[in-house]
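Hi R.,

Here's the chain you asked about this morning:
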Amino acid sequence: MTQHTSPANELDAEAERVAERIRARNDWVSVDLRVLPAVAADFLGCKEASLRNRSTPVRVRIGRSVTYRIVDLLRERRIEDPAA
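And the predicted structure, written out as tokens:
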């Protein structure tokens, strides 16, 4: 019997792999897989200012700190480049 994984599980697994690559560069990744704006902008291939002006991906604001969930960044990248 073939085991099928849901797209959400695949995305979560991909987010974990991306988080490990980001940590390997000594960049901060939270325990719930969020990154700082500079890392998010680099991941999407844009400038931080450009990222700030977008309506997506969703920002997570805690106090004055802004972070982005890696899962949301992966979704955003797939929207921009469906072949990715």
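The mean pLDDT is 89.

Let me know if you need anything else.
M.
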